[in-house]
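We treat protein structure as text, and this decision shapes the records that our systems exchange. Such a record has a labelled line for the sequence and another for the backbone structure tokens. The record that follows is passed on verbatim for readers who wish to inspect the format:
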Amino acid sequence: MYELSYIVLLVDTTYRIKNTFNRILGGVKMYPKLLEVMEENNITDKDIAALLKIPYTTVRDRTRGKYSFTFEQAMLINKELFPSYSSETLFKQ
């Protein structure tokens, strides 16, 4: 039981440290190429949110490294907004 409690504490502490660094550094850019291509094409997080029918804040969290896009979401973004790019290029982390 002690070992499990220690692991839970370690995971929780690691999670808190990651969140603290993300707040300090302004977040980690999970998909740098996607963000670059979005900027070049004047596509915003709100545009992607409308396409995916999810909240803007969810898209922002995903592009900024808090969460990942699902496979289906990534393919839809690629197909509808950036068909001239490969999905491997756009979503390389």
User: Anything to note?
Assistant: The chain is about 70% helix and 0% strand. The helical segments are 2-25, 32-40, 45-52, 56-63, 71-81, 87-90.
